[in-house]
Design goal:
The protein is of the alpha/beta class. Helices cover 33% and strands 14% of the residues. A 5-stranded parallel sheet has the order 1-5-4-2-3. It is globular.
């Protein structure tokens, strides 16, 4: 698989790397923020799955390529990773600094 993923741990990925992986369709990107945050702007190509509803969607995580989570700053995406790992799901990584870091680097957001 990809070099940044390890068998027993997850990685914190910088926003530009997440963008490059998403653009090449190498990952599934999941936004774990709440609905009002999603509506304020999100990464195009991301899927919205609020952390507050994790128990309802965790069993539906895609398995065909790595999953990367993100939130506002990295806290909730880290919680999602920890929960998924403890529940026995394959987890890969999250975007360091969340969408805040994404925006600080001037990367595009959408409101579709």
């Amino acid at each position: 698989m990809m070099s940044f993923f390890t068998r027993n741990a997850f990685k914190t990925l910088p926003p530009q790397e997440v963008k490059d992986l998403l653009d090449s369709q190498a990952i599934h990107l999941i936004d774990v923020r709440e609905v009002h945050e999603w509506r304020d702007g999100h990464v195009s190509g991301a899927v919205h799955r609020p952390l507050s509803e994790l128990s309802t969607w965790v069993g539906d995580l895609p398995k065909d390529k790595p999953v990367v989570f993100y939130c506002l700053s990295g806290g909730r995406s880290g919680q999602a990773l920890s929960f998924c790992k403890s529940a026995g799901h394959t987890v890969e990584g999250h975007m360091g600094g969340g969408i805040s870091a994404w925006r600080m680097q001037g990367l595009p957001v959408t409101r579709d």
